[in-house]
Design goal:
By secondary structure, the chain is of the alpha/beta class. It has helices at 28-36, 53-65, 81-99, 113-126, 146-158, 160-166, and strands at residues 4-12, 15-23, 69-76, 103-107, 134-138, 170-178. It has a single domain (4-178), classed as 2-Layer Sandwich (Nucleotidyltransferase, domain 5). The protein starts with a strand and ends with a strand.
Length: 179
């Protein structure tokens, strides 16, 4: 499966979430155009928590109508949010390797991307022949498909009506425990 994964995070109370939107290479250009078309004049990127509810509902409806699919990885944490992220990322990368995903793009967190790199290296180091996975961190304004992961994670984390609206895009929720 030559799929690309786009990852963003969301935190709700003591729960850390990573969302990975899974996109077939044949759909990359079309989905980028769709997402750019949702920008308001002067807007550089879509970010769920900054959108008005009515507008976010319209964005979610477009994502669902397009058949976007994603997984969400959850970890409960106490004081160490970074440990929760890395626990989610470890499982996410292992799953992507099992699925034969070829490219992984993570929303960049300046000064903290090195933590992700160590976790990814640790997973790839165990399975060098199988891998074939490339990865990079990018600013979300430069990669529109990161917006999918952001919207899905935010809506799932918000619960209630937002979780119901985004549910058709969420193919699986993986609870990785407590960090």
């Amino acid at each position: 499966m030559s799929v690309h994964g786009f990852v963003d995070e969301s935190c709700r109370g003591p729960v850390y979430m990573l969302s990975v939107a899974l996109v077939d290479p044949a759909d990359l250009g079309r989905l980028r155009r769709l997402l750019r078309g949702l920008l308001m004049p002067g807007q550089r990127e879509l970010h769920a928590k900054k959108e008005a509810p009515q507008r976010l509902r319209a964005i979610v409806a477009k994502i669902i109508a397009d058949g976007v699919r994603a997984r969400i990885y959850l970890c409960r944490y106490g004081a160490d949010q970074e440990a929760a992220r890395q626990r989610c990322l470890l499982r996410l990368v292992e799953d992507l390797l099992d699925d034969g995903v070829r490219r992984l793009v993570l929303d960049s967190r300046p000064g903290r991307d090195r933590h992700d790199e160590r976790t990814i290296w640790a997973v790839l180091g165990k399975r060098p022949q199988e891998s074939g996975l490339t990865y990079e961190h990018m600013d979300s304004a430069a990669e529109q498909l990161l917006w999918l992961a952001d919207v899905i994670a935010w809506c799932h984390g918000a619960g209630s009506d937002w979780r119901r609206r985004i549910a058709p895009a969420v193919v699986r929720v993986i609870d990785v425990g407590v960090s």
